[in-house]
Amino acid sequence: GAKVAAKAKEEGKEPQQFVNEIAAKYQAAWQNLNINYDRFVRTSEENHLKAVQTALQYMYNKGDIYQGRYEGLYCRGCEQFKSERDLIDGKCADHGTVPEKMSEDCYMFKLSKYQKKILAKIKSGEFKILPQEKKNEIIAFYEKEGLNDIAFSRKNVSWGIPLPWDKAQTAYVWADAFLNYLTGLGWDGSNPPTPLSKGGAGGLKFWPPSVQLMSKDILRVHATIWPAMLLSLELPLPQALFIHGFLLVDSKKMSKSLGNVIKPEEMIKRYGVDGTRYLLIRATPFGNDGDISWNKFDEKYNADLANGLGNLVARVSNLLEKNQIATDLSGEINKKLNKKAGQALADFRPDLVLSDLWLVLKKGDEKISQEKPWQMEDKNKIKKVLQPIAQDILDAAKILEAFLPQTAEKIIKQFSQKIIKKEAGLFPRI
Length: 430
Ligand SMILES: [Zn+2]
What we know:
By secondary structure, the chain is α/β, with parallel strands linked by helices. The protein has 15 helices and 14 strands. The longest helix is centred in the C-terminal third of the chain and has 29 residues, at 294-322. The strands form five sheets. Strands 2-1-5-7 form a four-stranded antiparallel sheet. A three-stranded parallel sheet has the order 6-12-11. The protein has three domains: 1-39; 41-244, Rossmann fold (3-Layer(aba) Sandwich); 262-414, Isoleucyl-tRNA Synthetase, Domain 1. The mean pLDDT is 92.
């Protein structure tokens, strides 16, 4: 879209080089954070381009895209059309810039046609929007402002997908970008999707998804244009959208100009990969904005990881080794803990999974402090105190595997020995 073309020019780069560099940065961040994915989709891929053209042609043929003229306001930063109501002192609330007045011949998408249908699906919960306050926000938008037809193409934009029936026009950035959710699954744009048996891209086996996760600044387009496109293409809507907030630093958005950006790679240097993953997940009840800072991270890291988990593992393993106590721990997953974690994840609350586990660890810590096994002589008595705590640690580590994989693996290995030995500290104090 126009935004990429303009930014690339600012940096004196060709758009393709510019987007290659950005994609590489994202891929490096996932790799550094030990996050895997099945597929990294780029909308500059050839099969995506062809599928978008096929899909838009389908929508054009059925009359959902028509020739028109757009006159109104457009924020390049948001890549979204704005109504007066969206602006604060005439400026975009997110970007603080005055949106440009657009007036040009273009193709329009008949968004208004789908207003009633989508609103009904949102209200009935067939198309869930979570958390609840985001659902309320979107319903209010539908009821107060409603859906107006929108420009779906622009003239003379060098970076974008040309409309197949009018190559002087390129597809509106979202018209192109949304479809990556389908092309990433192998969809070729045909409708209905050609079955694999007939040489097509398959019946979109993984569509619709149980949830699409996204941040709050792109909620509105995902709750309006995206479902309308799916309805136009006669494809099912995702079962749910889960909307997450921003990580703020001292209640402010991170920005280069404020100089308050906390970079993941700097966090990894300070806290390690698992430490960073822990701190980011625990930063806020998932869905809300989180207020983060280096001070808060340092405190939380020392309290929960250097003390907390790290200290408990060290204390228990040290006492077991010193007294040469053989434990017999169960290697089975703890059903009660597992069920609780499963429920928290079903509610989109990974932070709760961790806080629940840390309650278990805290109890172990308190028990040791009360019973003072280091003052005991009788090995059986020491074992009676330590074995249940060692079991709790092992149980917690099994659930931690999905969250802090390297740490969990170390603990599981350590606590699966007959005689548990002390190992190097997990999280050095800061
Ligand atoms: Zn904006």
